[in-house]
User: What shape does this take?
Amino acid sequence: MSELILYNAETLTALELPFADEGVRAGFPSPAQGYMENAIDLNRDLVQHPESTFYARVVGDSMVDADLHEGDILVVDKSVEAKDGDIAVCVVEGEFTVKRLSVTADGVVLEPANADYAPIRVSEADRFEVWGVVTYVIKRLSQGTSR
Assistant: This one.
């Protein structure tokens, strides 16, 4: 089972960074903006419910095919109601794991996104809880300096 390292979302501080509000083209290049007027604050823009939002750092590789890799930071909101297909942080028998929820008439299955791992079928006898829904993923693309 994948392990997660959990952190409280500290939203009392603000760090406003320049924001290219007209977007950055992923197709053909366009003329660069001369300046950036607006700012983005990740606390404000990624955390909708501060009292129920946590960050979790991914440990393990059970979700690599969903583009969740070791070291990625998950924004997890405990107030969002989980539904079929959501990626969620769950507690199974006292251990945290992040998986895709498959909710059917037969019950709940926690689906990994790596063929090396088996799905976890949740039974009524299991101590199971959907702890929160992953709302955003923050990831490092550059292999430069470490965190």
